[in-house]
Amino acid sequence: MPGPMRVAVIDVADPLSDLDCARTAESPYAGAFILACRSGCPLGIVQMPLHGTRITAAELEHELRRQLGEAWSRESRHPHGSTAKLARASVVVPSIFARPAHLQRCIKRLAELDHPNYEVIVVDNRPGNAPPADIEGARVVREPHPGISAARNRGIATATGEIIAFTDDDVAVDRRWLRVLSERFARQPDVAAITGLVVPGELETPAQVLFEQSGNSPDRVFVPLTFKRIGRFQVLRHTPEEGGDRVHSLYAIGEFGLGSNMAFRTSVLRAVGGFDEALGTGTPARGGEDLAMFLELLAGGYQLAYEPAAITFHSHRDSRAQLEDQIYGYGVGFTAMLTAVAMRNPRHLVGLAAALAPWLRSLRDPSSAKQSHRTEDFPSGLARAELRGMLAGPFEYLRSRQVQRQWSR
């Protein structure tokens, strides 16, 4: 089983110092997982094996330069102290209050955001007649309808910001997260939604390390991207810093981002009717509501952007049983999402049919985003769990729709 890794964020614009990798637990760290930035802008992720409890500044600089290559010299695009006028923003955090310590940490970090005009809304999504909740630093609204989509839609209905940013209660945000998202919206008025970079907050257990190897994180890119639909089922991926564009399938969703780090123009979310309440955590469909929204926006002619300087830190599941259940759920959510978009607009069936063969090939391609991080001893049971989930996804989405109809009655 993989050993624990020391997670660190190092900004190379500052003088480098030794990195302390001592661990209080019984087993020492086996390596370091480093997000390298320059003045807050990510340059890349560097992984180093450990042979002791400290990495010297000289060793750090050598390895960062070697692994980052040309990215080491990339300049920051977000100088501190920007005077850009920012629109009012609402941050929505759905929660069932299952992990109070995580939620408390999440709200604490949100209270420290570098943004002049924002609110924090916690949507209490506990089932039944839960007692009222009071959270310092946040406005709490109640949504008893189960599921993260219903909770997010409640947040959309009550938000007062021109921008709505979403994160999860097991996430800690970077202090400049909301400012960076808001500045990108200001620079690109045609963009309807922006996602950001998600990295692990810790890699302390074998299960957390295995999640990083599983290929279920989004494709991590460290330059800004803009996506817009061209043709019926293709997307133009624009990368201004790399000086080139690329066309790919509308359903190649790996770079679109995740629901734990996404923001939208409020007017757009209200115009499209919010999230599909038959998708997402807390429903039989288990997930996919974020990706369904991205696909719907792109298919509808809206533009989507990705901003790597908007950083969040996710707490991965720390046990093998939780990880296997999570990966099964990701499989369910993925094909449930595809079922949902096809049922909403049957023309997607043509595009999905064209994308099926390349997708199947990618499942076996060692260089694909799904396979490239997996080691030779990656547990086959986890891959089988995801496949079982994919097979179940369409049926679970149909069951979820039935549950939603019963709830509405």
Describe the structure.
The chain is of the alpha/beta class and 409 residues long. It has two domains: 5-73, no CATH class; 89-408, Spore Coat Polysaccharide Biosynthesis Protein SpsA, Chain A. Helix content is 35%, strand content 24%. Strands 6, 7, 8, 9, 10, 11, 12, 13, 14, 15 and 16 form an eleven-stranded mixed β-sheet that branches. Strand 3 (31-38) and strand 4 form a beta hairpin. Helix 8 packs across helix 10. The termini are far apart.
CATH class of the largest domain: Alpha Beta
Q: What share of residues is helical?
A: 25-40%
Our count of helices gives 10
How many separate structural domains? 2
In one word, what is the shape? globular
The unreliable regions are none
| CATH topology term of the largest domain | Spore Coat Polysaccharide Biosynthesis Protein SpsA, Chain A
